Amino acid sequence: MLIDEIKSCVSNLKRLDMFETAAQDIEKKKKNDNEYSDMINDLKNVLMNLSEAKEKVGFQISEDTILIIEEGIQKSEKTIENDVVDEIELISTKQHLSKKIKTPITKEWKLFYNNITPDLNAKLSSMGGLLKDTEQIKNIKEKIKNGSEWTELFKSENGTTKKIKDFSDGIMQVDQLEHGLNLNDEIKEFVMKVSSGKARITDINQNIIDWINTEGLVDKFIIKFKRT
Fold first, then answer.
1. Percent of the chain having pLDDT more than 90?
2. How far is it, in rounded angstroms, from Cα 120 to Cα 141?
3. How far is 30 from 52, CA to CA, in rounded Å?
4. I want to staple 170 with a disulfide (CB 3.0 to 4.6 A). Which of 62, 143, 149, 195 is the partner?
5. Is residue 10 included in any domain, yes or no?
6. Is 221 exposed, middle or buried (0-12, 13-18, 19+ CB in 10 A)?
7. What is the pLDDT of residues 40-90, one digit of tens each?
8. To the nearest whole number, what is the mean pLDDT of the chain?
9. CA-CA distance, 104 to 110, in Å (whole number)?
10. Quick one: CA dihedral 176, 181, 184, 189, positive or negative?
């Protein structure tokens, strides 16, 4: 009968709706699972990068930022329950990672970088006139410059070396150059004055003369009248 056919058709439509809803739920779950996995990997990378930066150059984040990271870890644990990702919690946790964790780390790195690099660059400028290989100073300066941005620090330079390693190597090379030239505090001060054009004849003493002779740097220094 017609009514029976209509009832059967309605029943089939309801079943199709159920199948469609189930399929949509599966797709939604898959999407949320993938986004959750990406978020966890992103958080792991943040922690690994912080560990590497601390190991290589002594970078340490503030206690406040540590607490924010711990809060982010707790939020990520709450995002999934009974193997199901809570979509609202997922959105909230992703925003926490992006704005509350990454932003302060970037700012703290910039402060750290700006605190240590002026002294490094000053040393390189003062030692530059004492070295035969001027390209060496240029290369070290480039390595230090490459460490300025946290977001770029863990990307590979020329597809091989991470910039954090270049930055770390640059710092070590400055120390090696300084050590190789046997610069004690008195000689460092003298070399800095010479580099800045502020050295006077009275700044030269026997210790400095002996150092110049020992290091074979006689041709690196000249004395001339100051222009008034």
1. 22
2. 9
3. 33
4. 143
5. yes
6. middle
7. 888 888 889 999 999 999 999 999 999 988 888 888 777 777 566 677 777
8. 80
9. 10
10. negative
Domain count, the chain: 1
Domain limits at 21?
A: 2-181
Q: List the alpha helices (DSSP H) in the chain.
A: 2-57, 63-78, 87-95, 103-128, 134-145, 163-180, 185-196, 206-214
Owner of token pair 């925003």: 95
> Does a structural domain hold residue 74?
yes
Question: How far is it, in rounded angstroms, from Cα 137 to Cα 177?
Answer: 10
User: Quick one: DSSP state of residue 155?
Assistant: S
Cβ proximity of 94 and 36 under 8 Å: no
Low-confidence ranges of the chain (pLDDT < 50): 7, 16, 19-20, 22-23
CA atoms within 13 A on the CB side of 115: 9
Q: How far is CA 40 from CA 43, 73, 149, in A?
A: 5, 9, 23
In a domain, 218, yes or no: no
